[in-house]
């Protein structure tokens, strides 16, 4: 069973972390253009694709450019209630990521693939492992403790977050994750909010 995790960049000229997870062994790389992402993903026909990018606009908002006081989706509010800080999808750089996330989701679903949204930083909080801001070597060690194989010290922060996304896909398929928000706008997170620490930083 193949699972793909993507730490999506807001624009195509910046690196996107890509992870293929099979039997808990991760293969990662950096990709750029949507065409490259689609080619690598569709050819493997993964069971599920987990992406660190917003997939929809808040209800009541017609476009990302629209000037309104509506900034959060239902899933965003639920994640915030957990004590995890996330950036509103209407905030500066998040706008480009949101537009790209919505576009890529549509492209993947046209290929009859299942796609869900994740927040790797928040997932790492719940899993009790350090985020990349605490040091990539600590994040790598934390992922290895989960039983993920194939990791190495040369992997970038984007790749390690993509690994986290792919692991979330595994938990989701095993019924060990929960989706916050409506079915079409939910963010998948591990079960076990009790593991959260007091100090939180943005996704």
Question: Quick recap of the structure?
Answer:
36% of the residues lie in helices and 18% in strands. It is of the alpha/beta class and 203 residues long. The protein has a seven-stranded mixed sheet with strand order 3-2-1-4-5-7-6, sandwiched between helices.
Can you give a write-up of this model?
- A hairpin with an 8-residue loop joins strand 1 (2-7) and strand 2 (16-22).
- The protein is of the alpha/beta class and 203 residues long.
- It is built from six helices and seven strands; from the N terminus they run E-E-E-H-E-H-H-E-H-H-H-E-E.
- The chain is globular, with a radius of gyration of 16 Å.
- It has one domain (2-195): Nucleotidyltransferase, domain 5, CATH 3.30.420.
Which short descriptors sum up this protein?
single chain; 203 residues; alpha/beta; Nucleotidyltransferase, domain 5; seven-stranded mixed β-sheet; 6 helices; globular; disordered C terminus
Largest sheet, if any? Answer: 7 strands, mixed
List the strand order in the largest sheet. 3-2-1-4-5-7-6
CATH architecture: 2-Layer Sandwich
Helix content: 25-40%
Q: Average pLDDT value?
A: 89
The name of the CATH topology is: Nucleotidyltransferase, domain 5
CATH class: Alpha Beta
Detail the topology: elements first, then pairings.
Elements: E1 2-7, E2 16-22, E3 25-31, H1 34-44, E4 48-51, H2 74-81, H3 92-110, E5 115-118, H4 120-127, H5 136-145, H6 157-173, E6 177-180, E7 187-190
Parallel strand pairs: 1-4, 4-5, 5-7
Antiparallel strand pairs: 1-2, 2-3, 6-7
Helix pairs in contact: 4-6, 5-6
